[in-house]
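Example 3.2
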Amino acid sequence: MSAEQQEKFLEPGVVTAQPVGDNAEYLKEVRDRSKAVTLGAAKAYVSTLPVDQASSVSGCYKVYNPSCEACPFVGYSCPTPCCGCLWTPIIIPYAPCVWIVGLFLCTCKAGPGSYSCTDLKGNKSSLVKMDAERGTLGYFGENEYVSTSGDGLAVGCYCTK
């Protein structure tokens, strides 16, 4: 990765793991569910994968929020491919008998292992393969409440198998 590309991914005040060489540092951050991994780092990583490895998204995932240390587990998601897009409902266990199903996010293919969309309010969402070996996905959301945008966005949720 060139110095110019690395500059593009870095934001002042945020320690960002960048995929370089064998991606060891980046994968350690992802596997530790670090909140410092950026969309740019995830896109750089997925671009190094063979297309078949990058594109495979199937099964159910546990969803974790890296910003909430007290209660990181959010729920479950089972992304479903449909017409070139990926529908990602989330199921949130609310009580022993009550489950909330919501947050249907439809993201369309932006490249191998990368899905994105912009809603009618201008909010942008991306879902990117972050660890091919373990099948981890990362959700990145850009809206008026987030101070960064584009490739500088920090991961909002991890989806792990």
